[in-house]
Amino acid sequence: MTSKLCTAILLAAFTLPIHAQEPPGRLVGRVVDHENGKALAGARVTLLGTELNAITDNVGGFTLNNAPAGAATLEVELIGYEKRSAPLRIRSRETLEAEVRLSSRPIALPPLEVTVRSGRLESVGFYDRRVEYGRQGRFMDRALVEERNPQNVSDLFYNQPSIQVLYGGAGVRRIIVNRSGGCDPSIYIDGSLGAGAGVDAIRPEHVEGIEIYVGAYTPIQYKSRTDCGVILLWTRQGRR
């Protein structure tokens, strides 16, 4: 082979298009008992075909960072339960959230449900508080807001336990907590303390998430003096 031919082959090799690998994604979730929904600690969670694995914590939670984008298989095993494998697709630069149900006996389980976490809500700690406070708080993400299709933001507070929406003058609605004859919760909009009558100044399509805490079970950074309760409202882009 001549030197000119070798040079041509080398140049061709170096000029071939190089397809960069997609940036990784992230997978978080919980492992629970299929029968009673109880969190399962100590379960091993593995993303097959990779070195990524985790052991669930005391609330059944797990996190797999830097998961390769694309089709994957999640495997979960725990002594006393049937091993479970489920297909999913990791999305580049996004956090997926999954709840994995295990059964102690061989039965047909529903398909694994995977949702994409909101980067906005993740940045403000919404999901961390949802795990930490569990049933002590109530949480609405964008999907739930769209499902309810409210005309006003205050419509989202109807049928919420311990919460009442009262009509005031000039069509203003007031949100109160049914404790000690009724009290006004502290309402934060994008982390800033606002007024209860001001939630309807925000259009429903701009709401990314809502957190409701009644009584003393309130995140310490938002705790009020009266222990009435706190409502946290997060908009899609934050305050401008």
Characterize the structure shown.
With 240 residues, this protein is mainly beta. The chain has two domains: 25-117, Immunoglobulin-like (Sandwich); 122-235, Ferric Hydroxamate Uptake Protein, Chain A, domain 1 (Beta Complex). The protein is 14% helix and 36% strand. It contains four helices and 15 strands. The protein has helices spanning 3-15, 119-123, 126-133, 142-148, and strands at residues 25-33, 44-47, 53-55, 61-67, 70-77, 84-90, 95-102, 113-116, 137-141, 163-167, 173-177, 186-189, 192-194, 207-214, 229-235. A hairpin with a 6-residue loop joins strand 5 (70-77) and strand 6. The protein is elongated, with a radius of gyration of 24 Å. The relative contact order is 0.12. The model is unreliable at 7-19 (pLDDT under 50).
